[in-house]
Amino acid sequence: MSPTVGNDRPTHSADGGDVRALLTNVSARSSSRAELWTSFLAATGLARVAEVGVWKGDFAAALLAGCPAIDTYLMIDPWRHLDDWNKPANVATDTFETIRQEAMAKTDFAASRRRVMRGTTLEVVDTIDDGSLDFAYIDGDHTLRGIITDLIAMRPKIRAGGFLGGDDFCPSVWQHGPAYEPTLVCPAAVHVALAMRATIFALPFNQFLIAMPNGERGAGGFVDLGGRYGALDLASQVRPPHAGARARLRGALAALRRRAGRPRG
Ligand SMILES: C[S@@+](CC[C@H](N)C(=O)[O-])C[C@H]1O[C@@H](n2cnc3c(N)ncnc32)[C@H](O)[C@@H]1O
User: Are 157 and 151 contacting, i.e. CB atoms less than 8 angstroms apart?
Assistant: First the structure.
């Protein structure tokens, strides 16, 4: 993708080859997640951006400061305790209020460019016009329910040739250990992207970017720029309950049969 596309809707080739070149370049020279996205957005000149899951506003502040071309920045977050969200960031509602105020203070310098949308994705998404966004950054609920909901709900809001990106594209679903709901941004985002015939890129710092089809019908694909992601199956990470006990039992039965000189089965 040329960073100097001369219209107000920068776009990319159907096979994502130009996006790949740009992402390879910005990945190589970025030392943080914020730097990676700031470089990408600054290079593409994307203007209408949404962030799902804002927390304390550090990411929003970095993008608003580093990308003057952004004229609209939607900040979507309920900033309240959610009863059905088993993740470490689900703090008490009064703590969330302090966090919200911090997010506002950090982005006050760009108050005329931000639009604060307090609520979960599903609570606010219907107030966003279809096709009105160039880029949405998904960083809210990273469970299976959350990532599927956010990608499906936000997708129509992105114009043809726009982008859906996000955080917590972790090679392991056990990002927060067994006490918490697994993180399923990977592989769910890959499957959703391929269903949309879009190309999805795995980036450094556990980031992903989906280049939405721009009208031409592409095949889509998964491009792992850092080579960190192996098979996308779940069976290698998630075992059925009592799988260990069953395997031990099978082993013990086989040993008994061997001792008794009986054939298997
Ligand atoms: C990991 S934090 C976001 C971090 C932030 N993007 C950053 O880079 O600084 C996750 C945020 O997602 C929000 N969240 C959780 N469930 C959500 C949902 N269903 N819709 C929108 N936001 C959600 C939480 O309130 C929390 O502030």
Answer: no
